[in-house]
Amino acid sequence: MAKVHPETILPIGTSSDKNPIVLTVWKKSLLFGCYGFTVYDSTGNLKFRVDNYSTSGSREIVLMDAFGRTLHTIRRKMLSMVDNFLVYNGEDAVDPRFTVTKHVNVLNSKSLAYVSTSKNWKKRNVRYEIEGSYAHKSCMVYDYTRRQCVADIRRKEAKGGVALGEDVFALVVQPSTDPAMAMTLVIALDQMFDHSRHSFR
């Protein structure tokens, strides 16, 4: 069986002295009978995990580190016209760190979602824009003002060109970006655009 954790992935637009963090995301929980994500670093060590105990109707998803400590809590915003997710630090449920809102303008088909620093999406509060296709695991996260790529999702192949399937892909995070934050964006995108049996709806 092909290894799931990264081997070698060429970085996009990075210098040799500031290489990005390359993570392998596996859409599979470590716990039997649960849906979730297991994330490995470039050496194959466990980095993050998501174990969703409810297979349907879940409003809350918890991103944990390798030891099971809560890093971020992602909650679906109710009574919203579009998919909208509030991301909190740890288990805090008072003030969200940021909001991920699905893009619905058909005139701009490249955009998937916006990340803002407010509960309510407004242009002036946007920090990041996500473009591409989550279904094809080809997404770029851009700093909204500088238009620099801070993270990207891409397909992954094992050595020898063996495809690992749609449930295994790479998350490449630039040095200036928090990998845990980038992983919360993956979770939000999965909720928005993956309607398979593995979604946490």
UniProtKB/TrEMBL annotation:
InterPro entries found in the cross-reference section: LOR, LOR_sf, Tubby-like_C
UniProt-listed SUPFAM superfamilies: Tubby C-terminal domain-like
Signal peptide start-end: none
Family per record: Belongs to the LOR family.
Descriptive protein name: Tubby C-terminal-like domain-containing protein
The organism of origin for this protein: Tagetes erecta (African marigold)
